[in-house]
Each structure stands twice: as C-alpha cells, then as structure tokens.
Amino acid sequence: MGILFKNGTLITATEMKATDVLIAGETIEQIGENLPTANHEVQDCTGLYLMPGGIDVHTHLDLPFGGTISNDDFDIGHKAAAFGGTTTHIDFVVQPIGGSLQDGLATWRAKSTTAQIDYGYHMAITDLNDAVRAEIPTLLDEGITSLKLFMAYKNVFQIDDATLFSTMRIAADHGMLVMVHAENGDVEAALTPALLAAGKTAPKFHADSRPPEIEGEATNRAVVLAGLAQCPLYVVHMTCIPALEALRRGRDAGYPVMGETCCQYCFLSVDEHLAAPGFEGAKYVCSPPIRSAADQEALWNALNDGTLQVVSTDHCDFWYDGGHGPWQEWQEKTGGTNWADYEKQDPSYRRPGKELGSGDFSKIPNGMPGLEDRMLVMWEAGVNQGRISPQRFVELHCTNPARVFGMHPQKGTIAVGSDADILVWDPNLEMTMGVATSHMRCDYNVYEGMQIRGKPIRVYQRGNLLVDGEEWHGRNGNGRYIPRKANAAIL
C-alpha cells in the first residue's frame, strides 16, 4: 500500500501539469494520469499543487557567534523549516581555530542527533595549514563536497588570498565546490572603528561599515581567482549591484561561478528597516547588510535571468530582547559558564541577543530568522506578483540547490525513484506573517504583518507525514544525514 496524490497539479523546474503521484515507502514510484486507487491511501489534491520539498543550503543552527549562540537548533529549527515547506538543509560546520576539520565535524554531529528533517554539512575552513590541506580530500568520504571561506570578519574567520587560492586548487583537483562570504574584511576593519569614534553607533551605521563597494570588490576577486584555478565557485548571500556585476563578468567569461541571494535581501532595505527608530534596526543586522530598493530590483532580475541560481536564508536568529543581564547575573552567582545549565534553570531564560550591541552596532550579533519564511514570502512576491514562474520558483528553491550541491535526483524534484519529499501546496490559502504564526525560536519576524497567499498544507519527508495543517507529526532522530556527490553541476 502506498500514498496516492490524486488530481493535483505537479510543478517541477521544467513543467506544470495535472497528474497523479504515487509514493511507496520512502520514494516516488509512479507519476501519471488516472492512476488506480486500489489498496492505496488516497489524498485528493484537487485545486492543489504538488511540489518537491524545499532545500535551504545556507543555515547556521546552534552556532556560537558574536558573544552568544543562535537560537534555533536541529530540533526547533527543523520543525520550523518543515512548516515552511523546507525538508532538507545544509548547515555549516566550523573548523575550530587550531583544530582539525574532523574536530568541527564531531561537534556538528553531536548537534544533529535531534534532527527531524534531512540535512547535510558544508565545511567552513578557518585555519588552513599543511595538515588541514591534507585533510580536505578526506571530506569526500564523509559526503561533504563544499568548502566555505570567509573574506570578512578580520581576526575571527577571515582568510587571505593565498589561503583562498590554495583551497580552490585543492578543491578543483577533487571535484569540490568553494563557497565564499565575499566582503573585503580589511576595509571593514578600518571603517568600523572610524564610525564608532565619530559617535555613529546606531544599528543603521552597520550598513556604512560594509558598503556595497567592498562586497563587489571581494566578489570580483573571488570570481577571478576561481577562473584562474578553474574551481567551481558559489558566492553566498549576494546583496547588491556591484556584486552581481562581478558575477556576470565571470559567467560571461566562462568561469565556473554561481551565486545565491537570501530572501531577506529581496524585501528589506536600509532606509525602512535598518534605520528604524531607536534600537529597532538591530533586528535587521546581518552581513552583508540589507541594501536599497534598487538592489532589491536588481536581485529579482538576477533571479529571473539566471545570473543567480539559488535562494536560501543564511538563517541565524538571535533574540531581540535576550538574556544578557540575567545571564551575567547567573554567571556571577553560580560561577557557571555552560549555556545548557543556565537555560535549564527557567524556561523563560534566554541566551544573550541583539541587546549585546546596544550603543555599539559592531557588537550586535549578525543574523536574522528566515528558515520557515523563505518559500512563503518568495512565492507571494515572486509567483503571485508575476516576477518568476512557478517552475522557476521550484528551480530556485528545490532543484538547483540539489543539483549544485550533489543531491539530485535524490532530492529537489518529483520523479520516479526520487525521495518522496512532497509539499501539498494550497495556492489560495492566505496567512499573515509574524511571530504569532511562526514556529522559529525568535521574538520577532522580519516579515511581520505581510499578507501572503499560498503555503503548504501537508509536508512529507521520504513518504513520512511531517506537517498536516497546524499539526506536527515529525520525530527527533528521523532526519537523515545526506551524503553528497562530488563533481556536481555547474549551472
């Protein structure tokens, strides 16, 4: 006995058609019209769309950063993702300074024991030495095919050009992909103290410390080096016209370079959000910063014309009103230093959040929530408003992420033999975005009050029902690690 989705409209990256879909066990068994119903659980999908589960290839769950730790983990974060239609994600393992890549991997494996959706890992390299160079090819045995390097965050994660180029050459030799956070960290490190010294401490000055020019310059540098090394390059969270122009130049030259943007950059602006009164703008501090309305329009055009291949989130949420004071008091009273012990004292206790940067924008933890919201807001602004087709929506949020990161056709499509990760999507269901409807562990939502039409009403992961309306059916430990293939597509 299988599950038969009858009378739905199937949407993939290449087609949109009325059909039935039959799943048996964890995979898709048959696709066609008028499939027989005998001995199957039948789901009537009249008026509904059938789409592959979303894939978010840029998340930071349970990440120590900026003097605290991001809120959502492989438990709550996974639940929130599924309610928003995402059934697979790739998180970033961070190599500890002075440690090995395996040290970082062991830490993330421990974090992911509570997984409720499927997941993979990228490896963020922070300390490249001869031992780590030798270790990189062994990641393929772990199903890790992508390496991330930071051109920003000086004296924390930032690497130099020699490290970037050396890593690219190793990656190219082994069919791996290099990802870069492209901002000129040396320039940012000069701009920030000058702004603070001038009394420019409010959240809005975060954007002045990381202007579009330094993102464009770093993107261009990474693109050129990738062309020299003939290494597949994926530029993460692209935000602005100078960066897009650099990527286009590389693609026009035939370099193996690709890029993503994140949903927040298509909606939020410096003037309206980052410059909000008081400390409110701290909610929207992330790096690179949110930009202008002109940059938003350029991003939508790049998503439509193929310059950008993927939409992700860079999900890394922190409390707006966190537990900075109570945490300090608890430490002083008990001498404790363990987050878990602190949070066990009282369910209302919170990790420090955005308030860490009150009076100094450079100390605001960078990041915002988005893992649950991505597909909902992009469908509304993209498909409903005519910016992209339903097929392009699936391509950007499901199929391309799977292809670029070596999971296709197991993931990212509805095809015979693929994993039965299926969204039953109601294109007419309306909802108001906000904290009240969110499942993320955060006290604000960057799309608060936004009206959307279209969302998943049932979500399946490998044939298992995760979401049914507002009911949760997932279980901790049911999420599966997905090893990925090298030499993946360059789109």
Question: What do you see in this structure?
Answer:
The protein is an alpha/beta fold. The chain has a domain at 54-318 and 353-375: Alpha-Beta Barrel (TIM Barrel). The chain contains 14 helices and 19 strands. Strands 1, 2, 3, 4, 5, 16, 17, 18 and 19 form a 9-stranded mixed sheet that branches. An 8-stranded parallel sheet has the order 6-9-10-11-12-13-14-15. The protein has a two-stranded antiparallel ribbon with strand order 7-8. Strand 13 (233-235), helix 8 (241-252) and strand 14 form a beta-alpha-beta unit. Helix 4 (161-173) crosses helix 7 and helix 7 runs parallel beside helix 8. The longest helix is centred in the middle third of the chain and has 18 residues, at 212-229. The two termini are 38 Å apart. 54% of the residues are buried. The model has no long low-confidence stretch (mean pLDDT 96).
How many beta strands in the DSSP annotation? 19
CATH architectural designation of the domain at 54-318 and 353-375: Alpha-Beta Barrel
Low-confidence stretches: none
- Net shape: globular
CATH topology of the domain at 54-318 and 353-375: TIM Barrel
What's the CATH C level of the domain at 54-318 and 353-375? Answer: Alpha Beta
Summarize the biggest pleated sheet. Answer: 9 strands, mixed
Query: In percent, how much strand structure appears in the residues?
Result: 15-25%
Distance between the amino and carboxyl termini: 38 Å
The oligomeric state is single chain
Fraction of residues in helix: 25-40%
Query: What integer value in Å does the Rg equal?
Result: 22 Å
Number of helices: 14
